[in-house]
Amino acid sequence: MAAIENIKRVLGPKGFLDQSEDTARYVTDWRGRHTGKTPLVALPKSAAEVSEIVKICAGNNIPMVPQGGNTGLVQGGVPDASGDQLVINLSRMNRILEINPGDGAATVEAGVVLARLQAAAKQQGLLFPLSLAAEGSCQIGGNIATNAGGIHVMRYGPMRDLVLGLEVVLPSGEIWDGLKTLLKDNTGYDLKQLFIGAEGTLGIITRATLKLFPAPRTAETAIIGSDSVEDLLAILARLRKRFGDKVSAYEIFPRSALEMVLRHIPGTKHPFQEPPAWYAVTDLWDVTPNPSLGGDLEQELAGCLDQGLAGDAVAARSLGQAKDFWKLRETIAEAQKLDGDGIKHDISVPLGAIPEFIRRADLALEKIIPGFKQIAFGHAGDGNIHYDPCPPAGMDQKTFLGFRPEVNRAVHDIVADLGGSISAEHGIGATRLSELAHYQSKTGLALRSAIKKAFDPKGLMNPGKLIP
Ligand SMILES: Cc1cc2nc3c(=O)[nH]c(=O)nc-3n(C[C@H](O)[C@H](O)[C@H](O)COP(=O)(O)OP(=O)(O)OC[C@H]3O[C@@H](n4cnc5c(N)ncnc54)[C@H](O)[C@@H]3O)c2cc1C
Q: Most exposed: 40, 76, 241, 418, by fewest CB within 10 Å?
């Protein structure tokens, strides 16, 4: 096809992949559940190149799929099976352009891997607070396009709160320069916010300016065991009352998740003698040196033990031990993949409704799949639970996954009833399209379609994702 040859010419010999053995990892999603096809994986190295190839695509009606690290969990960054969709992967646009402590801002290209930005900020005594288990591979552009959350949302907010400005190549190929470092800008519609969480449906993010914070100079970590989620939330309330926003992460997981991690992830071990039903891992951060923080945390945890809220609790004595505690939480997704995936949900409900959500979802699912294995874990500090039931003993994966539509509906009905969201942080992608269509109001869907049409009248930018 002449247009594809033109795109190759723009990109040069190192700027694309077109052999199936090379493109394979770009067309399959992280969970390995969907494999699509593409005529070409474009690897542009500048916004100007992105603009040129998008113009060629627009002129020849070639659909495009923007892609970062391809760690997304809703099949948003992979092409469909048609073989028509061009993948535009941003990996080669990976320069950290500026870390500016005065402005408290970093300017980066969209293909910078999240962990690299965290490390670069740290070197200057600063913090880029977005943190998630895929941080060694996911890219800033992908984080912005999915409005990524992770473990520090309760203190620093999701990606939406961390972006100061963007540069975006629009579906026409035109470049929108909104690359500002302003904290205040009251000139009407906040256009950058439309691209955040848009999952690549409105344009391709090429550069971003991001907020930086003072790095914590004191960090304490603890793991807590308890009989119930209610008690873990009561402990969180106590920690917040005493330590305020020093509580920067609070993650929960059940014994079933821990057992799965211990089975699959080398170097993990049980933190307690007696395994409780539920666990929480928490971080306290202080931006000033605070030698008493560790003692204060231990004292508060002792109070939780006395009150019967916790059955066991250990404050980390070293960085290594803190990392060990976090590994138990951060490797759950990896262990799930090795164990044979469950039926995934990424929901949020008001904080206080988490126990009721889990109780009602467990009851509803027991009626659909008696004896199912419950894995409910996640960012309890911001009401976000990954509720991922797994097959009961003796049921094969295929039979189990056949229950997915029924299970999704049961779980999401409870979420809707509790005033929650069917996608807290992973997005809609292709996976949750029908659920979005079911739970969004007609007015909400019409507004989304109008925005999409205004930016992308031909519907070429990541079609089949986010917009039902
Ligand atoms: C083990 C594991 C743990 C995870 N934990 C979390 C978590 O705690 N919190 C969380 O929020 N997510 C989590 N995720 C999901 C995922 O890592 C995030 O959604 C991440 O932000 C995706 O970034 P990416 O670069 O891999 O994007 P991709 O997967 O490549 O793409 C994701 C979406 O963004 C679009 N996109 C990518 N780059 C651009 C760009 N430059 N311009 C426009 N659109 C673009 C794609 O089209 C697609 O729709 C986890 C994933 C894994 C595998």
A: 241
pLDDT at residue number 342:
87
90 lines ligand 1 (CB under 6 A): yes
Does any ligand 1 atom lie closer than 6 A to the CB of residue 89? no
Atom of ligand 1 nearest to the CA of 30: 53
pLDDT digits (tens, 9 = 90+) for 67-115: 999 999 999 999 999 999 999 999 999 999 999 999 999 999 999 999 9
From ligand 1's centre to the CA of 316, what distance in Å? 31
pLDDT at 1: 81
Confidence of residue 442 (pLDDT cuts 50, 70, 90): very high
Does residue 463 have its Cβ closer than 6 Å to ligand 1?
no
Q: What is the per-residue pLDDT across 235-258, written as a single tens digit (0 to 9) for each?
A: 999 999 999 999 999 999 999 999
pLDDT tens for 400-423 read: 999 999 999 999 999 999 999 999
Structure tokens at 304: 């939780």
Q: How large is the average pLDDT for residues 61-71? A: 98
- Ligand 1 atom with minimal separation from the 200 CA: 44
Instruction: Report percent pLDDT > 90 for the chain.
Output: 95
- Range(s) of the chain covered by CATH 3.30.70.2190: 218-333
Query: Which ligand 1 atom lies nearest to the CA of residue 110?
Result: 41
Give the distance (Å) from ligand 1 centre to CA of residue 155. 21
Decide whether any atom of ligand 1 lies within 6 Å of the 464 Cβ: no
- At 397 the pLDDT is 87
Domain span(s) for CATH 3.30.465.10 in the chain: 1-215
Second CATH level (architecture) for the domain 340-426: 2-Layer Sandwich (3.30)
With respect to CATH, is domain 1-215 assigned 3.30.300.130?
Answer: no
Determine if ligand 1 sits within 6 Å of the CB of residue 384: no
Q: What is the atom index within ligand 1 of the atom nearest the CA of 168?
A: 42
The domain over range 218-333 is classified in CATH as 3.30.70.2190? yes
